[in-house]
Amino acid sequence: MPRLCKYTLAALPDPRIQELARLLVQRCVGVQPGWQVIVHGNPAERLGLRQKSIRPHMQKVFEGTMPWVGLDFPTPALAQDAGMTLAQFEEFYWGAMLVDWEALGAEMRRIADRFDAGNEVRIVADGTDLRFSLEGRHGRVDALGSNMPGGEIFYSPVEDSAQGVIAYSEYPACYLGHEVSGVLFRFEAGRIVEASADSDEEFLLGLLDTDEGARRLGEFGIGCNPGIQEHMRNTLFDEKIEGTIHLAIGQGFGYLNGTNSSGVHWDMVKDLRQGGRIELDGVVVQENGEWRL
């Protein structure tokens, strides 16, 4: 198992940071001795240019052929976005990162096995009734994988299967520095045929016109991290909120048999804890955020 060098550990006096560093190196990307590792950050003003420039190289990520991990570290800016003080955000952060990953992974595997054996998913909530197919698809359990924190099960739905309406009425859809509130989509034969938003609608419609794949689903995810209970305008955390689902428009995951191709991959979070439910092949498997498996 690769180890962090003594000079790195000496620079990390907080034992929580040491533990996080070990998880990232040893568990998330499985770094081997002698590998070269690149660590980089992304200033907000350069995100747009970055998205365009790295998309061809990100293909390996969506195909599952390149190990990687992404995370944010506590900063005053992230705390401000979350509506917290830095101390509050740090407490939240470590609670989301340092969970019992072995136990959570086993529970998520049990849930994923049920969905792997199913076909049609139906999401029902206020203003929402959406169906899509997972037939022939298998899910990925993220319990220390590509993102930290982990805590989601995700699929690439059958590309022409989405039918119905979904209203993202609880939280804004955050992407590339934009917060789009009140997103509403209507799908026919897998394609978004109507779209609207309460704010920044021009940005939403522009992204949908990026390419043909931007109007189809690339991902269906289920949030399972018990350390994340509140939305904080950061998709890396928000998509893991326990009791929520998220659907990404755009690029699918080839390693999950997804075939949708797009320059967009925009996760939007839907809270099901207040009157929502998930049905699998006509059977309610989650209601009000609680599993009924």
Summarize the model shown:
It is built from 9 helices and 15 strands. With 293 residues, it is an alpha+beta fold.
For the structure shown, list the relevant keywords.
293 residues; 9 helices; 8-stranded antiparallel β-sheet; globular; 5-stranded antiparallel β-sheet; alpha+beta
Write a structural description:
The protein has 293 residues and is of the alpha+beta class. The chain has a domain of 191 residues. The N terminus is likely disordered. Helices cover 27% and strands 26% of the residues.
> Given the structure, what is the number of helices?
9
As a percent range, the share of helical residues equals: 25-40%
Describe the strand arrangement of the main beta sheet, using strand numbers: 9-8-5-2-1-13-14-15
* SSE arrangement, N to C: HHHHHHHEEEEEEEEEHEHEEEEE
Q: What secondary-structure arrangement, pairings included, does this model have?
A:
Elements lengths: L5 H5 L4 H14 L18 H8 L4 H5 L12 H6 L4 H12 L3 H16 L3 E6 L2 E6 L6 E3 L9 E4 L7 E6 L4 E3 L2 E3 L2 E6 L2 E6 L4 H8 L8 E7 L11 H4 L5 E7 L14 E7 L5 E4 L2 E5 L2 E2 L2
Antiparallel strand pairs: 1-2, 1-13, 2-5, 3-4, 4-10, 5-8, 6-7, 8-9, 10-11, 11-12, 13-14, 14-15
